[in-house]
Design goal:
Length: 339
């Protein structure tokens, strides 16, 4: 039986001066799951994630519903029931206070613990991410980048939030440290039963760490569903394009690498109809006049007029069961009658 979501987002819009950058995004995060928000730079994934915590830039307008275990998220929940792991660890930690003291303060302000108990719990939280208690008196600049990011994980999880939002949490780290920090993030979320929203542009991070994924394009969800299903058989041409630009599974570059052509539309200038139509090799006339709504197809939500259950796409063309993005489009899916 499906559990109630920890986080439920409906019709989220974030804009500046009347121009929406996030244009109506809806998704759920289930208990204990890792949901990845994926997309190119500027797609709106980070802004979506930060809107969950009310951490949008000054002057931004936010509309829509964000429910944490059924109740609207309020500022009192930030850092307590829902916590952020940012990309830049220096922005999350005060440069003038020892790291252990910062964790103690977070514990005392949220849970009202005594100084002594807060210090004990802060040291335990640091040890849980591999930072010895003796280092709790160090300032952030005395840590390496990887150690600082582990301290940020400890800070985000110290009050055992129900949901952690990690916004490109390892982009500034080298690949080996990235993998260790991501593993640790998942382990600590699992140990505290926290769900995780992981913002990333890295499909390999999604493959290794997420259970479901939401692909964001031009401020909307293009495809949203289980990682294995989406990555092995993408139905939105945008998802297929992202995957086609990756190296082959064995690490060798693909021949005739089909780079994703063109650029996303500028905020405030999405084309009429499907925002991906100018870059989409499958676009038909209808795509340029009517925007596709997300709808269930083959176990995930897809915002594409032409997406159909693969087996029923075109029985005369076996390869049409998956999109052949960037290749000969000889086996285009049959346009459904509803189009
Ligand atoms: S709706 Fe049309 S243009 Fe948009 S992704 Fe689907 S096929 Fe391409």
């Amino acid at each position: 039986m499906r559990s109630d979501p920890v986080l439920s987002v409906r019709g989220l819009r974030v804009g500046f001066d009347g121009v929406d950058v996030v244009r109506g995004v809806s998704f759920d995060v289930l208990p204990g799951e890792v949901l990845a928000l994926v997309g190119e730079s500027g797609a709106g994934k980070s802004l979506t994630a930060r809107a969950l915590l009310g951490m949008v830039p000054r002057g931004a307008s936010v509309e829509g519903e964000v429910l944490l275990n059924g109740a609207p998220v309020t500022p009192a929940d930030w850092g307590r029931r829902i916590a952020l792991v940012p990309q830049d660890s220096l922005s999350a930690l005060s440069p003038v206070h020892p790291v252990g003291e910062q964790l103690s303060l977070a514990l005392r302000s949220v849970q009202g613990l005594s100084r002594r108990e807060a210090r004990r719990r802060a040291e335990a939280a640091l040890e849980a991410v591999g930072i010895p208690a003796a280092k709790s008196r160090c300032h952030p600049h005395e840590f390496s980048g990887g150690m600082r990011q582990r301290a940020v994980l400890a800070m985000a999880l110290v009050n055992e939030p129900e949901l952690v939002v990690a916004d490109e949490p390892t982009t500034a780290l080298d690949p080996e440290t990235q993998e260790k920090v991501l593993g640790l993030l998942r382990e600590r979320c699992s140990a505290t039963s926290a769900s995780l929203v992981l913002v990333t542009h890295d499909i390999e991070v999604v493959r290794a760490h997420a259970g479901r994924m939401a692909v964001v394009y031009a401020g909307l969800l293009a495809e949203y569903g289980p990682v294995e299903r989406v990555l092995t058989r993408p139905l939105a041409p945008y998802t297929a394009g992202l995957l086609a630009s990756l190296p082959a599974v064995d690490g060798t570059p693909r021949t005739r690498l089909p780079a994703l052509p063109g650029r996303p539309p500028a905020p405030g200038e999405p084309p009429t109809g499907c925002a991906f139509a100018p870059r989409c090799p499958h676009a038909v006339d209808h795509c340029r006049t009517r925007a596709p709504e997300p709808r269930p197809v083959d176990g995930r939500e897809v915002a594409c007029h032409l997406a159909t259950v693969p087996e029923t796409v075109n029985p005369r063309c076996p390869t049409s069961a998956t999109w052949s993005y960037g290749r000969e489009a000889a086996c285009r899916p049959t346009v459904p009658e509803t189009v």
